[in-house]
Amino acid sequence: MANRKYIVGNWKMNGLRTELTDIADIAAIAGQNKQVDVAICPPVTLITQAAANSPGFTIGAQDCHYAKNGAHTGCLSATMIREAGAIMTILGHSERRADQHESDAEVKAKAEAAHAAGLGAIICVGETEEERDAGKAVDVVCGQLEGSFPDGADPHWLTIAYEPVWAIGTGRVPEASDVEEMHAAIRHKLGKLMDEGADTVRILYGGSMNGGNAAELLAVPNVDGGLVGGASLTAEKFGPIIEAAAAS
Ligand code: 13P
């Protein structure tokens, strides 16, 4: 796959103003590795300042609402997030699917709202450990992908992230052969869901990626990058992942 690698840091509910220096340091490393696309998705409270501090570096969000505006206390529309300075957003992360009970249909509506507001979208899919043990991982993930898949999807604005729930924050990583099987299944499913462009939609792997395992994971066929949680919080940890992508 000739896709440029895409390395995205998901800061989740981490980061105060003092951590803006980490984003600036990460942006500087990204600037030295221009053959890789790099982004950080900090909490919304840091988006505007992070984007202003590091012009040209991609800042994303971690969610948006599907409605344009209205009576949704505490929520943020895609347009608000765009206006704050983000140019893309993660959607349907397993933590939101579990904690906020987000359905596939809601994720699809959010992706369409994001696109309408000019935001790129990274749609997350992934199986639980029970589903993998039951031999249902590929079916579950392809089902989530189909249900969450936005109308009008295009590789210019849509990215998929495969994140096995049991690998997130646990230090456990699937076998390379399992990652290869899943990413091939996702690629195949994209071919069914899209008239064209399925080959160039980037499919990221996420779940305990770090500087020690990134090179191996990024060498797996159809792995076009990584969605990184804990190891994206500092330049010291995230830099080696960006460099591994640059060398791949
Ligand atoms: P960790 O890299 O901390 O396992 O988190 C992965 C993740 O959930 C990124 O969205």
Key phrases:
15% strand, 10 helices, TIM Barrel, globular, 248 residues, 41% helix, eight-stranded parallel barrel, alpha/beta, binds 1,3-dihydroxyacetonephosphate
Give a brief outline of the structure.
The chain is of the alpha/beta class and 248 residues long.
Q: Please, could you describe this protein's structure?
A:
The chain has 248 residues and is of the alpha/beta class. The protein has one domain: Aldolase class I (TIM Barrel, Alpha-Beta Barrel). It is 41% helix and 15% strand. It has ten helices and eight strands. An eight-stranded parallel β-barrel has the order 1-2-3-4-5-6-7-8, surrounded by six helices. Helix 2 links the parallel strand 2 and strand 3. The longest helix is centred in the C-terminal third of the chain and has 18 residues. The termini are close together. The relative contact order is 0.16. The mean pLDDT is 97. 1,3-dihydroxyacetonephosphate binds next to strand 8. The site of 1,3-dihydroxyacetonephosphate has 14 residues, from strand 8.
